[in-house]
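User: tokens in, sequence out, please.
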């Protein structure tokens, strides 16, 4: 018996793979930027900050902003990995498992953490943008209501999956 390929699941896997590569590439570039801020570009950045009358803490805030964005990207990669395993379980025809309920709960916490990291990076960019006009355009990196709605939806879905798992176990126990 030949299994049927689900175009939606195939598309989801392709999008996740593409996003994973993009996130990894961006994180590596930003991690390199953090290294440059601390080494080769430090003198130029310090000169630019001094010319803009920025306080001495601006260098640390710059490094903090880059670090927060890299951390958010790392958690986004983790989110995609959890989603990948969820999609694979749907492909196998067995999504209502304790593992998937745990994955959905972890995805909820991960998405909430990403949102908080983005808020920190945005606040840093806004503060630095008051001294460096090049950063003004990065003052809104994605803070919106959906960023806080997604974790709630994932927490609720985790409970639905957990209940579905328990109901299936109960049903199998009665048959």
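Assistant: Sequence out:
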């Amino acid at each position: 018996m030949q299994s049927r390929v689900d175009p939606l699941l195939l598309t989801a896997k392709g999008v996740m793979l593409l996003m994973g590569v993009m996130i990894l590439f961006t994180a590596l570039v930003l991690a390199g930027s953090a290294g440059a801020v601390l080494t080769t570009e430090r003198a130029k950045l310090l000169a630019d900050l001094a010319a803009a009358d920025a306080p001495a803490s601006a260098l640390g805030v710059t490094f903090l902003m880059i670090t927060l964005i890299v951390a958010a990207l790392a958690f986004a990669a983790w989110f995609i990995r959890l989603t990948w395993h969820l999609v694979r379980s749907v492909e196998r025809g067995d999504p209502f498992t304790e593992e998937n309920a745990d994955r959905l709960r972890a995805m909820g916490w991960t998405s909430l953490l990403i949102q908080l990291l983005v808020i920190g990076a945005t606040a840093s960019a806004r503060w630095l943008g008051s001294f460096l006009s090049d950063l003004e355009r990065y003052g809104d990196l994605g803070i919106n209501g959906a960023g806080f709605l997604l974790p709630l939806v994932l927490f609720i879905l985790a409970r639905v999956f957990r209940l579905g798992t328990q109901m299936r176990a109960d049903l199998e126990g009665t048959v």
